[in-house]
Amino acid sequence: YAPWCPACQQIELTWESFAKESEHLDITVGKVDVTQEPGLSGRFFVTTLPTIYHANDGVFRRYRGSRTLEDLQVYVLERKWEAVEPVAGWKSPSSIMMHGMAGLFHLSGWIRQIHSYLTGTLGIHVWISYAIFILATLLIGLFLGL
């Protein structure tokens, strides 16, 4: 979820109720703020918000059903998750590919922090910051090419 997401705000009370019922369902329910954990959102390849995953014994399935409390409970109680195809091996959060994707998301956050430092703290104009990143990209490419 993300705090600014209207769909996430809409499901928030339902999700909290589901989390309270989790002990009776013998499951653990959690939520992750993708603005605070960009690497995790990259690892799970989150492209829409909110995104719900069911994980059991290291197998991940994306939940795409109705987002009512009753439907979430039925999904678990009646083991409807067994009929859902697991996330493909290469897209699994534990795969090397998704580990690399998490790294790219961390890199993008680091670049955003540098840009904010250059423009906010140092007062450099936005376009000059862009020019610095372009120059750095070219120099790194040249260095790696050598």
TrEMBL record:
Source superkingdom: Eukaryota
Localization (cell): Endoplasmic reticulum membrane
GO cellular component, one term: endoplasmic reticulum membrane
Cited Pfam families: Thioredoxin
Transport is among the record's keywords: yes
Annotated membrane topology: Single-pass membrane protein
Annotated ranges, domain Thioredoxin: 1-76
InterPro entries assigned: Thioredoxin-like_sf, Thioredoxin_domain, TMX_domain-containing
Alphabetic keyword roster: Disulfide bond, Electron transport, Endoplasmic reticulum, Membrane, Redox-active center, Signal, Transmembrane, Transmembrane helix, Transport
Example GO molecular function: disulfide oxidoreductase activity
Transmembrane spans: 122-144
Repeat found in the keyword field: no
Major location category of this protein: endoplasmic reticulum
PANTHER family for this protein: DUMPY: SHORTER THAN WILD-TYPE (PTHR46107), THIOREDOXIN-RELATED TRANSMEMBRANE PROTEIN 4 (PTHR46107:SF1)
Protein name: TMX4 protein
Gene name per UniProt: Tmx4
